[in-house]
């Protein structure tokens, strides 16, 4: 295993860790550790047991530092107070940064005073641990805390830019200031980078580099469902049950497809504020629709291998990792034409793309794939190849490793660090993928 800069020690912060909707962060951290990095995981707040269904998640929850929970420890509060009072110049530097990144108005100032207090709690935990960098996922409140803590500790700050919240809330979150303060920003797509360029000073555009969220294709190698089997075509959706995911449109499309004579079954994996309303909406469809609640990574992978089509009807996304998981499982996908999705799904090749909010178009796309097993096989094969080529975890982690150790460089898509694959690695970073027999 490579020794990248003598096990470079990096702190990661997120708003909530681990989280079922952000398993890609956990995977990225595990992949970086495999590459030789020493990652100190931190989170503003702890997650509940519903987010800790797998062993990796439970271990992450048990070994991470939680900022808000630390405020209940008299010992840590005393350490934080000593640190702040003992380094007045660092404290003043951090408070100037808090002033610089606050949005206008008293409310914005009040929140950033609160973030500064959280940052000092985090700095007290990281102080003396030889942390070389503080990296944050997302550009909102946790990025403010990360930037302020890094400013106090006088270490480099960087973050991963997602969407859509990162971009919709960019002015309020002072994305421009955070990009200026960062020494690089890992954007998950060309779309995310282009939107960051709207807010950033052009002098800071070279900091914006593209690192995809990714999956491990090996996790999704399995026998899968037989496209030629008799019976209902099995649809699957995985995601948070919130209005932005468009599940109401999906249920309407399933109803329309059934009325057109397509026999379907839909499995809905996930939970959220819309669940009760969605279950009520789905009740006329009877056993055509099944809600499972949250599932672990392994449970989701098992459901994918026993499905025929993955459907995502979202109104706003970044580049959904769940689409990568489905495509790695050789499922054809139906998704909406929004944000970075067309960078992953090529209409007619590895899936079908429809306009967001158009239930009739979604129903037609589902019906087209349901009626054509050969098309599903072909798209599923191409989809897995897409993930292997451009969204494989090991390769994207090696690209991020270059940013973490060398800075933004000159390449829009940083080349993976070759030493990240070890001396025995050949030119192909991912082994050839055996094509499953189609019978």
Number of domains: 2
CATH domain fold name of the largest domain: Rossmann fold
Q: Average pLDDT across residues? A: 92
- CATH architectural group of the largest domain: 3-Layer(aba) Sandwich
Largest sheet: 7 strands, parallel
- Distance N to C terminus: 40 Å
Fraction of helical residues: 40-55%
CATH superfamily of the largest domain: Glycogen Phosphorylase B
Q: Uncertain spans, ≥5 residues at pLDDT below 50? A: 423-439
The helix tally amounts to 17
Question: What global shape is seen?
Answer: elongated
The largest sheet has its strands arranged as 3-2-1-4-5-6-7
Roughly what fraction of the amino acids lie in strands?
5-15%
Number of strands: 13
Secondary-structure-derived class: alpha/beta
Order of helices and strands: EHEHEHHHHEHEHHEHEEHEHEHEHEEHHH
CATH class of the largest domain: Alpha Beta
**Gyration radius, to the nearest Å?**
23 Å
Provide the fold topology.
Layout lengths: L8 E8 L6 H12 L3 E8 L9 H9 L1 E2 H4 L3 H13 L1 H14 L4 H21 L6 E5 L3 H13 L3 E5 L3 H4 L6 H7 L2 E4 L2 H10 L8 E3 L22 E6 L8 H13 L4 E6 L5 H8 L6 E5 L3 H9 L3 E3 L9 H8 L4 E4 L14 E4 L4 H12 L2 H18 L2 H14 L33
Parallel strand pairs: 1-2, 1-4, 2-3, 4-5, 5-6, 6-7, 8-9, 8-11, 9-10, 11-12, 12-13
Helix pairs in contact: 1-17, 4-6, 5-6, 5-7, 6-7, 11-15, 14-16
């Amino acid at each position: 295993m490579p020794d990248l800069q003598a096990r470079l020690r990096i702190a990661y912060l997120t708003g909530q860790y681990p989280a079922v909707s952000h398993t890609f962060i956990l995977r990225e951290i595990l992949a970086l550790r495999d590459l030789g990095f020493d990652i100190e995981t931190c989170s503003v707040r702890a997650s509940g047991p519903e987010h800790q269904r797998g062993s990796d998640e439970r271990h992450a929850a048990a070994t991470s530092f939680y900022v808000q929970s630390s405020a209940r420890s008299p010992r840590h509060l005393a350490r934080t107070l000593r640190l702040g009072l003992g380094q007045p110049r660092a404290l003043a530097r951090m408070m100037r940064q808090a002033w610089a990144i606050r949005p206008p108005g008293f409310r914005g100032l009040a929140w950033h005073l609160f973030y500064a207090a959280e940052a000092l709690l985090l700095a007290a935990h990281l102080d003396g641990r030889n942390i070389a960098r503080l990296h944050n996922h997302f550009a909102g409140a946790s990025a403010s805390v990360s930037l302020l803590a890094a400013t106090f500790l006088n270490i480099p700050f960087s973050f991963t830019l997602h969407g859509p919240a990162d971009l919709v809330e960019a002015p309020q979150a002072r994305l421009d200031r955070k990009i200026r303060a960062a020494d690089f920003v890992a954007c998950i797509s060309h779309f995310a980078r282009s939107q960051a360029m709207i807010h950033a000073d052009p002098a800071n555009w070279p900091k914006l580099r593209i690192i995809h969220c990714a999956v491990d294709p090996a996790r999704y190698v399995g026998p899968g469902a037989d496209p030629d089997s008799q019976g209902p075509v099995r649809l699957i959706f995985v995601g948070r049950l919130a209005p932005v995911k468009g599940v109401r449109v999906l249920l309407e499309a399933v109803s329309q497809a059934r009325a057109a004579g397509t026999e379907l079954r839909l499995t809905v994996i996930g939970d959220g504020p819309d669940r009760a309303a969605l279950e009520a909406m789905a009740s006329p469809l009877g056993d055509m629709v099944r809600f499972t609640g949250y599932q672990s990574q392994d449970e989701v992978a098992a459901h994918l291998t026993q499905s025929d089509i993955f459907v995502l009807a979202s109104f706003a996304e970044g580049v959904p990792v769940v689409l990568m998981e489905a495509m790695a499982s050789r499922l054809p996908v139906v998704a909406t034409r929004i944000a970075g999705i067309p960078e992953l799904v090529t209409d007619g090749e590895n899936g079908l793309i429809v306009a967001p909010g158009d239930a009739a178009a979604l129903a037609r796309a589902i019906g087209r794939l349901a009626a054509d097993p050969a098309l599903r096989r072909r798209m599923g094969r191409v989809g897995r190849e897409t993930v292997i080529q451009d969204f494989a975890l090991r390769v994207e982690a090696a690209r991020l490793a270059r940013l973490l150790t060398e800075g933004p460089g000159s390449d829009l898509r940083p080349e993976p660090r070759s030493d990240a694959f070890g001396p025995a690695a050949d030119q192909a970073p991912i082994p050839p993928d055996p094509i499953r027999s189609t019978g």
